[in-house]
Specification:
single chain, mainly alpha, Acyl-CoA Binding Protein, 3 helices, flat, Acyl-CoA-binding_sf, fatty-acyl-CoA binding, Acyl-CoA-binding_protein, FERM/acyl-CoA-bd_prot_sf
């Protein structure tokens, strides 16, 4: 689910603009890493990927 966070941040804020959290702040570090992983995407591409991923999750949940 962290991919959704990364896509959301990329679509709303843009490229990562903060330094990576320290090793003892695991939650924030994982969130930062997810955002950094999609850094090259445009706002529109990130929004489209977010919608696609949510649809995939709904479809997977419906087939369970």
């Amino acid at each position: 689910m962290l991919i959704l966070y990364g896509l959301y941040k990329q679509a709303t804020v843009g490229p990562v603009n903060t330094s990576r959290p320290g090793m003892f702040n695991m939650r924030e570090k994982y969130k930062w890493d997810a955002w950094k992983a999609v850094e090259g995407k445009s706002k529109e591409e990130a929004m489209g990927d977010y919608i696609t991923k949510v649809k995939q999750l709904f479809e997977a949940a419906g087939s369970s």
